[in-house]
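Sample intake sheet
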Amino acid sequence: MSTVNINPEIISLIDEIRNDKVHGASQLARQAAEVLKVTAERSQADSLDEFWLEQREVGERLMSARPAMAPVFNIIARLLKAISEKSAEMDLPSIRRFTTSRADEVIRESRQAIAQIARYGSELIAGGDRIMTHSYSSTVVAVLREAFTKYRNIEVITTRSGPGRTGERVAQELGSYGIPVTFIDDAAIGLYISRVSKVVVGADRVCVDGKLVNGIGTYQLALAAKMAGIPFYVFCETLKFDPRLKGDEVDLEEKDTSEVVEAGRLPPEIRVKNPYFDITPLELVTRIVTENGLLTPEKVISYLEKQSKDD
C-alpha cells in the first residue's frame, strides 16, 4: 500500500488517460508526461526524498494506466530515470525545475518525431492513391494530411475500427482537412480491400519478438492486404518500440462489454469479450516508418534485439 498522498486532481488526470477511448498512444504518452510535469509543479514535498517518492508513485500509476501502449510506459520511464539521476546533484527547487523542463523536452521530441514521420510517410503516397486505414492514430492523420497538401486527389477509406468509435474520429479529422473519406464497417474490409492502393495504420507497441500491437481488427486488415497484394505500412515513432515484452505478454486491455452489446440483450450464460487491441506479425508488414526512416521487419527485430541486450 502506498504511503504517498497523491493530489486528487493528479489521480483524476491519470484516470482520464486510463479511460480514454479515442486518442492514440503517442498523444496519451505526451499527456502522461504532462501529468508528471503538473505533479512536479504542484508538489508540496519538503525534501528531495519526498519529491522523488511522489514522482515515482505518479509515474508508476501512469505506466500501468494503459498497459498495451508502449509509449506511455517508455516516456514516463525515461523521465523517471532522468529525475533519479539528477536528484543526487540538485536541491529541491532545482530538481522541480529540471522535471518540468525535461517533461517539456520529451513532449517536444515526440511531436518532432511525428512531424518527421509525416514527411517520410507522405513520400510513400502518390497522386490518385486510395488508402485504407484502421484505428485512430494521430501519426497516420498527420501523414495523410501532409500527403493531401501534395496530392489533392487522394482518397481515404477508414473503418469503424471496433466498438470504441475511434474510426469516427479518424473520419472527422480527415474530413475536416477536406480529404475525401469513405467510412465503412470493419466487416466490409474484405469487400473494399481490392479497391485501395495502400493500407496505412499506426501502432501502440512493437514488441521485442516483432509483433505489432494496435487497435483490434488490425490483424484482419493486414491479412486481407496480404491476400490482395496491397502494401501494408505502419507509421510509428521509435518511442513505441518495446524491448521488454513479447506479443503474448501484452495486456490487450479488455473494455466495457456494453460497447459490443447492451447489457441484458443476451442470456447471462453467454460471455461477451471486448479487447481493444490485437497482435499482428511483422511478416504481414511491408515497412515500418519511423522518425529515423523506413525499416524492414527484419531491421525492426534486429533493432529491438539490440535494445533488449543493451537494457
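Comment: Residues 213 and 279 are 5 Å apart (CA to CA). Strands lie at 130-133, 155-159, 181-184, 198-201, 205-206, 211-215, 232-235, 277-281, 287-290, 293-295.
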